Amino acid sequence: MTGQHCWGYGEDDGPSEWHRSYPIAEGERQSPINIVSSGAVYNPSLKELTISYESCNSLHISNNGHSVMVEFDDTDDKTAISGGPLEVPYRLKQFHFHWGTECNQGSEHTVDGKSFPSELHLVHWNAKKYSTFAEAAGAPDGLVVIGIFLDTGGEHTNLNRITDALYMVRFKGTQAQFHGFNPRCLLPSSLDYWTYLGSLTTPPLNESVIWIVLKEPIRISEKQMEKFRKILLFSAEEEDARIRMVNNFRPPQPLKGRCVQASFQS
Ligand SMILES: [Zn+2]
Where in this chain does the record put each Alpha-carbonic anhydrase domain (predicted)? Predict the structure, then answer.
């Protein structure tokens, strides 16, 4: 172990090696999982998800060496989600993507064994109970991540603002201003979801996440997907190697007796 930054998605430092530095990788509520749709339990008492992103304020876009991320001003509750399985509202902190090299892989969650080309994660934290994001990230009810599958199809015009900004953050460790982007435009029309208790899917893999995975994927064009694969790099500008940022996903982890609930009847 050479420190907390020493992980990635390569052969030597990829998901199968993470447990060496982060033993929780083999814990009881790890994510992602394969969602078996027939095994999900419909819970009629699950409320509809309320997503109030009206007055959200995006700050910047960055390449953290593992993904491309858009961060938000989270100093008050103006951007919150509530309802669903949640007892209190959770504030939006950031969103980021996971993707593959081809369209048959890339998502972290899978549904009945099927992968999607990409998965969007909207990360929220419990500011009612915890005073900082970091504190929430260490608590069993600290975070909520909404997972949205991206499938290939027609162009998603709202995603162009992001794909157009990728050139500014090609290299690991770079950041650019990114104001006025409302992730509401990335939600599918149906907010039907599966929910279960899990973890961060990247080190430190904290078991602090209430997962809400939307059933309906959004569609983006193959050309848009290619921009993620071709523009972004795992490597920093000063490094000699130029390593494309692809396959930045963790494969499904054992369910270990957990129950997946569905907000809808299949
Ligand atoms: Zn993620």
Answer: 5-264
Q: Does the active-site annotation cover 96?
A: no
For residue 117, say if its preceding peptide bond is cis, omega within 30 degrees of 0: no
Q: Please give the distance, rounded to the nearest whole angstrom, from the Cα atom of residue 173 to the centre of ligand 1.
A: 17
CA atoms of 22 and 167, how far apart (whole Å) = 33
Q: Active-site residue among 66, 98, 124, 156?
A: 66
Query: What sign does the CA torsion over 111, 117, 166, 204 have?
Result: positive
Ligand 1 geometric centre to CA of 201 (Å): 6
One pLDDT digit (tens) per residue for the chain, 266 residues: 444 558 999 999 999 999 999 999 999 999 999 999 999 999 999 999 999 998 888 999 999 999 999 999 999 888 899 999 999 999 999 999 999 999 999 999 999 999 999 999 999 999 999 999 999 999 999 999 999 999 999 999 999 999 999 999 999 999 999 999 999 999 999 999 999 999 999 999 999 999 999 999 999 999 999 999 999 999 999 999 999 999 999 999 999 999 999 999 98
Distance 98 CA to ligand 1 centre (A): 6
Helix (H, G, I), strand (E, B) or coil at 136: helix
Residues with CB under 5 A from ligand 1 (ion): 121
| Gap between the Cα atoms of 96 and 79, Å rounded | 17
